[in-house]
Batch of 2 targets.
Target 1
Amino acid sequence: MLIAIQTENLTKQFGSFTAVDNISFHVLRGEIFGFLGANGAGKTTAMRMLCGLSKPTSGSGEVAGYDIARQPEKIKKNIGYMSQKFSLYEDLKVWENIRLFAGIYGMKTPEIARKTDEILHSLGFASEKNTRVKSLPLGWKQKLAFSVAIFHEPKIVFLDEPTGGVDPVTRRQFWELIYQAAERGITVFVTTHYMDEAEYCNRISIMVDGKIEALDTPKNLKRQFHADTMDNVFYQLARKATRKSD
Amino acid sequence: MKQFSSFVRKEFYHIFRDKRTVMILLIMPVLQIILFGFAITTEVKNVRMAVFVPSKDVSTEGIINQLQESKYFTLVEELQGSGDIQRIFREGKANLVVVFSENFHDNMLHTGESSIQLIADATDPNQALMLTNYAASIISGYGMEIMNEANMPLQIIPEIKMLNNPQMKDAYNFVPGVMGLILMLICAMMTSISIVREKETGTMEILLASPMKPIYIILSKTTPYFTLSIVNLATILLLSVYVLGIPVAGNLFLLIFISLLFILVALSIGLLISTIVDKQLAAMLISGMGLMMPTMLLSGMIFPVESMPVFLQWISCVLPVRWYIEAVRKLMIQGVDAVYVLKEIVILSGMALFVLSASLKKFSIRLKK
């Protein structure tokens, strides 16, 4: 199997504060990789480095076969990114948002038009094509944002707490979209605070104070920590944290 | 190119879908020009006049009577000494002071000429100019009468003195001012708000994670505002030429060149603000308080720079808009050659270079974090 992401002693310091401390891991192609940790554990910083948004202080990493320090532009072409804040333009219509981001990723106009209809149809949004995003319910917006993030068929998609504030039914539907993407071969790198969602991942890592304290399949982690839920595993690890959450 | 055009199109959607923005951007310049333009062409009425007559005689009485009969001027006070002149202006009791020379009538008869001084408060230059012209024409009318009666060449020389604004800047000062204000508003304020909005909503993060280069993000964010500035510049110039009848006296191309230079400075300032703050409200406050207020009060748009306290004059020197307004005044109204605006061009270019490099540097530092 091919490796989609790998890091070697990846570290990021802000002054004397070490946000990400020597993390080494790899993610396989087509895998759904859960990246867990309490607030302030360094997840977002690590993710920003992987996306080429931030340069590592030391250590190295490769995403989609490109070096994160030297080839961030190549990486950006091959990934999709959805942040914790809602990331579409509210005053643009549904199809205009799709066209904008597809255009930014360099897709051709006829291809964009064809795929827009296809995607809206499969989401059941066909009738909302001309609706401004502002007036869609939050759950729909998040599903749309995910579809936009993978519209250009990236090799890897990074999701930073994609389901924050969304109801359980919509979260379930959202994860169905994630599974569909993974089946098409898109690697999914996702951070979340919901432990039930952690169970949906193929493998998860848990970060505490900038370090990866555990990394395995949910099943193995539960066995390792003698816990019956992921919630319990997370709690055992996260309470060791000395760093204050932000 | 595809990236760029998709992005610019999106920016135009943002602008045109926000009705308030459209109102501000397109209607305000028109309103300002029309309002300012017609507000200054008011008639001279109810001018409060004070007189200083060292020696009363037939002629001084005659002139004062004629002025009062004209319905425009009302005598409010007869001053006792020349020291009272400053006082009466300070107290705001009079808009015009008429000072006769000593032995007015006798001088006129013996030497053939006599002088009279008209002093006006030129804080409002248009008003001052108009009322002194009215008064001067009434006085010379009286002189003609006397001359016909006496059947000999007599002359009354009205000497006009402007207080507070001795250069007596042109009546259409406000057009350059409005140009500076509008361009500043659109370029600096709107650009900074629109960039900061992307930060606030989180879309900036998505854009930075996309293959779009940061410099293209900036370029495509500024392009629409640049375009709108050009539209507004054209609107203002057309309105002032065809509605207000102010011709562009100097070289039109030079005027456009300087305007483009100023737009560049203003865009860079907008960019700089957007790299400093993270909230739209903050961007609005900084550009409102930090740019709009000084632009209106210190740039010479409303109050002449020369009559400001020295301290404020120093502050006004660092405002790009001050130099822009000065250059436009020279080019548009005085119609001078390029040589005379060289100073302004050099200063504005320097400012553009400085602010642009500062903001680009700041922007890239932020990205590296």
Target 2
Amino acid sequence: MQIAQILANGLVLGALYACLAVGFSLVWGVLNVINMLHGSFIILGGYLTFFAWRDFGIHPLVMLPPVALLTFAIGYAVQYGLVNKVVTAPVLTTLTLTFGLDMIIYNLMTVGFHATPVKVSLGLGSVSAFGVRMPVDRLMGMGLALLLTGALYYVMRASTIGRAIVAVRMDRAAAALMGIRVNHIYAVTFGIGALMAGLAGVIFAVIFPVTTNLSGMYLGKAFVVCVIGGLGSVPGALVGGLVLGVVESFAGHFFGPAHALTVGFLLMLALLVVKPTGLVGVKGYE
Amino acid sequence: MMSRLGLALFAGWVVILATTPLFAENYIVRTAIMIAMYSALALSWNIIGGFTGYPSFATVAFFGVGCYVGGIAQRAGVPMALAWAIATVAVGAMAAALGAIILRLKGHYFAIGSIAIVEVCRLVISSWRSVTGGGDGLNVPLLRWHPDAVAQFFLLVMIGIMLAAFVMNALVDRHRLGFGLKCIRQNEDAADMVGVDTTRYKIVGFTLSALLCGTVGAAYASWVGYIDPTDSFQILMTVKVPVMALMGGAGTVLGPALGAAAFVILEEIFWANFLEWNRAILGAIIVALIFFLPGGLLNISWRRAARRLRGRESAEAPA
């Protein structure tokens, strides 16, 4: 039954990875921007959740709406005020710009929150079924991650703003001619990317330690998930996340946890070369 | 192409750097070593990032592998200079092999691929304990000279590598290789169509951009005497080197050296005065650079800036 346990761990981890990466994938797919800020948005969500829980006793679930609003607002402002000005420039420019912004946010967070790892512990215990044990907070996190990812999928497919985002991705010029305010849509897209990162941060605060030092690692995971699953689609991020979670879980078991990361990156390099469109290579963001 | 004036200024700058031990204190000499080191890295990056226009973030991987190959060779009893040569060749070979794989990617995918190379190198080195010492790092044999003599020696070594990188840039710039690489930057498909062997050119460019990073890494390891994965594969350095080249003017021969000098000096000033906010200030500089200095220091139109200062050029001037 050990295999079942490893698989279950991997799937739970994978659902979390999907939620972590889907916003990054959206921004990359629609705006063609590699958003180096993504990891810091996750950490920001995590810290807000932790301080609300520690200082005011607010349950992490209650923190979802305010964190969503705040990270969306920051994301919208960053894109509208800064990134939009250079959004058509080569990748080096936009990547460097978001990296510079990330250095600023990182510094603000280290000074404001200190780098000591903190964690929300709800003490929910764990359940076991079919010989598989799983902490309840992880299960809840997985459920929430899948729910949020599904909600984004629904928004992209069924809402006006979602269709507008897809339209801008397909053809920026034509979308503008149809009366879509491209700059506004870009900012909304970036805002949604930041929002998904912030919400992932809320979930992660309950499961993993929160520290600014992890933002780079989360960003790396987002890269890997995007490349494995294929860029710019919700199902792609989901598949990529689940594959990475399961692969890391098995690699961690057989080669030791230190090598789990390496295996993820090697898998990504291999896929980049063999099939850069990812496992679920689709063109439009749907 | 560079002007005589630019070349003369650069020569003067090299003389100033090389003579710092004669008139300045140790701290300044150390800064001069860092300037020469980063200039060599930025000039190397320029071949792939500037001339070819491929957004490579792999420089720090070559630097880090250079550190370790040189350090391990020296520990095995190889003389220092030979260890540096071994590191150079090993890193060049690694870049050629990796280049054949990741240069098939373009744009964003290439950028991500090059970042992945850094991560894989760092993870492999940190987990390969028996050879690299893992997270504990490695001690590299130190030169048993007077500390001042050691600093002077490594200053001259780093300046030497910087000059080699500079000459390499100047030669590539004039050679058909440079012409081909610039064609690739403008339009790779068209370059391919008119007979530029794009794959081979890119691999040669990528390898050239890695070679001296290996030398710099090995020399750095001998200088500091201790290497570990976090220091040798600094995440910040991944972006610092391209930013330096952009700051001076990517794709020019003098720009990267100018940018590296400006960046290191700014960084030292901020380290000294605003320790806690050092990273945020560097971030702000990067952001300002993207918006206000997109072509780098070398491409500022001084005439237009002067006119703007006098207030003749108003808001409707072409952007």
